[in-house]
Amino acid sequence: MSQPLIHEVGANLARDSTGPENAMALELARPLLIAIFAVLVIVAAVRDLTTFTIPNWISVALAVAFVPAAIVAGVPMATIGWSVLVGLAMLIAGVVMFALRWIGGGDAKLMAAAAMWLGVQGLAPFVLFTGLAGGGLALALLAARSTWVRPFAAVGPSWVDRLATPGGATPYGVAIAVGALAAFPAGIFMGPGGGL
Fold it and tell me: Where exactly are the structural domains of the chain?
């Protein structure tokens, strides 16, 4: 009886990655894998901050890049599966928060895609750091929207004026990005038992 294809691929990767040249290639891949995640969440934060939208391509790119990145990093297949489930659970939570009008749709998708990269072990730090960053963001927006600071925002770029408009939207993608980046060291790629 033959093993399923995914097990054969994983076994071949493990066997082929034992040579010194492959070990060096994996070591060189580490910064690239981290950069993919970091660049995409930072771009999402900047876009949300300046336009109040997070383009779908960012969340899709994060989600699509996750499995190949995890396989190259040597993350066990069971951990990859659990991480996908974490992403789905966060998507459901995000949809609920979107329905309650607490966050935008782009925020929900970004939160789910980022959670996949963090997995079960990075989920609690992600939620904690995102909540703390969200609180800091709320305080900064309250200050920017005050009658003392608001006049200064009006002379800046249009996106700064939009941010400082009382009652305006909150670019929560910024808090999600900060939370994801802060939690990454605890996640499946770098945390205890992580692939990198």
Answer: 5-186
Give the span between the Cα atoms of 12 and 112, in whole angstroms.
30
Q: Is the pLDDT of residue 2 over 50?
A: no
User: How many other β-carbons are positioned within 10 Å of the β-carbon of residue 196?
Assistant: 19
Question: What does the pLDDT look like over 146-164, one tens digit per residue?
Answer: 888 878 877 778 888 888 8
Exposure letters 98-129 (e unless 16+ CB within 10 A, then b):
beeeebbebbbbbbbbbbbbbbebbbebbbeb
Helix (H, G, I), strand (E, B) or coil at 168: coil
Crossing angle, helix 77-99 and helix 56-73, to 10 degrees?
A: 160
* Average pLDDT value for residue range 172-186: 96
pLDDT (tens digit per residue) in 94-108: 999 999 999 999 999
Q: In whole angstroms, what is the distance from residue 159 CA to residue 162 CA?
A: 5
Name the DSSP letter for residue 185: G
How far is residue 180 CA from its own chain's centroid?
5
Torsion of CA 95, 101, 102, 105, to 10 degrees: 50
